[in-house]
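Practice problem: predict the structure.
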Amino acid sequence: MTETPPHPTQLFPGGRVVSGHTTLLDAVETAAQARGALKTSRLAVSGAFHTRLMQPARAALEDALKQVEFHAPRIMVYSNVTGGLMGADVSVIPGLLARQLVEPVQWCV
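Answer:
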């Protein structure tokens, strides 16, 4: 499986979020510390969500979403992949949810 390269997050502009297999994370952590990184932290997660490593699960999610009846949001809901407000067009929701599985979160675009 191909490891994913680091991608910046808009949550904290001076920081970076890196996802990938342990060998990649070990190398990035070592390189960051050698270059003077103030801190590196690993998050305890149950999956590589919001990365291409989840691509094998995308088709199953898309199939499952076909069984769901979506309704227009009654409160403000923002898309993780666009950073924008979800509108009344519920036809876009399944596609956005499938993209959310494999794309970085856009906090406030």
